Automatic annotation (TrEMBL):
The lineage of its organism: Archaea, Nitrososphaerota, Marine Group I. Its EC number is 1.1.1.100. Keywords: Oxidoreductase. This is 3-oxoacyl-acyl-carrier-protein reductase FabG. The keyword Oxidoreductase applies. One of its GO terms (molecular function) is 3-oxoacyl-[acyl-carrier-protein] reductase (NADPH) activity. It holds the Pfam family adh_short_C2. The gene is fabG. SUPFAM superfamilies: NAD(P)-binding Rossmann-fold domains. The keyword S-adenosyl-L-methionine does not apply.
Amino acid sequence: MSLSGKVALVTGGSRGIGFAAAKILSENGANVAITGKDQERLEKASSEISNSFAIVADVRKTDDVKNAIKKTIGKFGRLDILVNNAGIFPRIKKLHEIEEEEWNEVLDVNLTGQFRVTKEAIPHLQKTSGSIINISSDAGLKAYQGFNADAYSATKAALIVLTKCWALEYSKDKIRVNCICPGVVDTDMTKPFVKTQKDRDFMDAERPLGRMGKPEEIAKAVLYFASDDASWTTGAILAVDGGESTK
């Protein structure tokens, strides 16, 4: 129970990587607050995670974000771990086909949303010398032929650089800031692209290790960065993608 007494906030914690991260943090002793927009799904997820607390919040809304931090502190009294996981994936389109509203929505959730949550969390993390884990993507590490999701890639690349910026900015507070770059993971977000066995075979074959990832495998990286095992690690960018970004 390496996180006993610690408190974590996981955005987008009702499913996929966020749910797996919240679950593994809880299993290792942390009290966990999870946020999401869908109250029913959020409460169901919370019922499956010990020592958890569900907060309906949209990272696009500053008041929601402030309320989520306030409720977390009100419930548990402190904040030690922030997992910036909330994100959306756009429809696949080439740049000249993207509407400006679509572009702005992806940036608002995947980048400005992370800014909003982190900004509100920092004063509390300063008190605990806490840990921030940003969930980016291997699409933020390099460009992929045929992966026409420019806004998504741009936000994930920006989050990688922000991880390094925040690691330096808050090093004097002993706040550690690290980043995980998952590849294609078998979640609700990727299901639209894996409708047939042929689709899955293609996805598996693209990864040097021969398969898509599992949410639990990303969650284990989250656990490492959140724990004291990573006490001398900050500004790190970890690809957990079956080797895809090395090609």
